[in-house]
Amino acid sequence: METTTSVNLKTEALKNGAIWGVINIVIFLVSWYAMPSLMSSYLYSGLLAVIGIALAVFFCIDMRKKAGGYWTFGEALWNIFVMFLMSMAIVFIFNILFGKFIDPTYPVKMKEAVMAKTQSTYESLGMDEQTSEAALEKVSESLDKQFSPTFSQAIVGFGISSVLYFIGALIFALIFKKSNPNPFAPVNEEEVSTQ
Question: What is the pTM of this model?
């Protein structure tokens, strides 16, 4: 007797994206309250990138297994992008709400930390004072938009981030697509739904 299990990959992608977003929020909160000075360092950015790639690989493999071990480029792309978008949306919304309602000092402290780090970088590169001041003014404007965005700035930022995450999803879909070597083999154990 065969058992049929229905796997909805879109639901799995949303679930994995939500888990990934919550993990990012926990990392953010632990970093902010335990070691806020670390958040403006290159080490922190590098560590977040490594954790993000590791989670993306883990969740892509998980979804491919749930799809029966094989999925086309299109199935992989759509579901990976949905997962990336869900994770990004959760973190994006949380960061805005955190800076506006939970800890209003967050945007100010982060801007100060990033400005200090940027200024020390410019000084170590031997940049003259006038050029450094002009560059720091541009960085300050950019940080204001990043940490305290208006509604339209938040929408534009989300759109730009979505495009970048789509490019990432393209790369991951190319890596994790796997064609069934026997395309005529019936799927006996699982019924896979991509909708």
Answer: 0.84
> If we measure between CA atoms, which residue out of 76, 92, 55, 56 comes closest to residue 10?
76
Cα→Cα distances 31→40, 108, 121, Å: 11, 16, 23
Phi, psi at 183, each rounded to 5°? -65, -10
> Region 84-93: what's the mean pLDDT?
96
Integer Cα distance of 59 and 54 in angstroms: 9
Helix (H) or strand (E) holding 174: helix 151-176
Residue pointed to by tokens 């879109």: 10
pLDDT tens digits, residue range 30-72?
Answer: 999 999 888 888 899 999 999 999 999 999 999 999 998 989 9
Cα–Cα–Cα angle for 29, 35, 38, nearest 5°?
A: 105
Q: For 176-194, how does the pLDDT look when each residue is reduced to its tens digit (9 = 90+)?
A: 999 888 767 665 455 555 5
Could you tell me the CA-to-CA distances from 88 to 24, 25, 101, 127, 190 in Å, in that order? 9, 11, 20, 35, 30
Q: How many CB atoms lie within 10 A of CB 31?
A: 16
**Distances from the Cα of 56 to the Cαs of 31, 50, 74, 98, 171, in angstroms?**
21, 10, 17, 25, 11
Confidence of residue 147 (pLDDT cuts 50, 70, 90): confident
Q: Which of 84, 83, 63, 82 is nearest to 178 (CA)?
A: 63
